[in-house]
Specification:
It is built from no helices and eleven strands. It is mainly beta and 125 residues long. The strands form two sheets. Strands 2, 4, 5, 6, 9, 10 and 11 form a seven-stranded mixed beta sheet that branches. Strand 5 and strand 6 form a beta hairpin.
């Protein structure tokens, strides 16, 4: 069992919503307090950064999801979330959560070293 476990993927029609969760579990390190992010890789596409949230809760979003997706976290539950609204067919992809060991997402420490297995999101037109 990995240290990052995604869930919440599924099949939905365009215009629908899904909420992804990523539970972190490491007995010696609390990933949720550092920069974490969501990435996706669609069929035949390169991996794309979807959203990040740093240790202070500051967020960034990819251009294609801005205004539709919201990243958040619950430190007490050590869980990262991605609320996805107004889904489009082009959002179809495997979604991964990833973690760094730096509070900031930028700079030399902001390297996503730890990855989950992914959860599939399929949006039908």
């Amino acid at each position: 069992q990995g240290e990052l476990a995604e869930s919440g993927g599924g099949s939905v029609q365009a215009g629908g919503s899904l909420r992804l969760s990523c539970v972190t579990s490491n007995p010696t390190y609390t990933y949720i307090r550092d920069c974490m992010g969501w990435f996706r890789q669609g069929p035949g596409k390169e991996r794309e950064e979807v959203a990040t949230i740093d240790g202070d809760g500051r967020t960034t979003y990819g251009d294609s999801v801005t205004g539709r997706f919201t990243v958040s976290k619950d430190n007490a539950k050590e869980t990262l979330y991605l609320q996805m609204n107004s889904l489009k067919a082009e959002d179809t992809a495997m979604y991964y959560c990833a973690a760094t060991t730096s509070s900031r997402c930028s700079g030399p420490g902001g390297v996503f070293r730890y990855w989950g297995q992914g959860t599939q999101v399929t949006v039908s037109p």
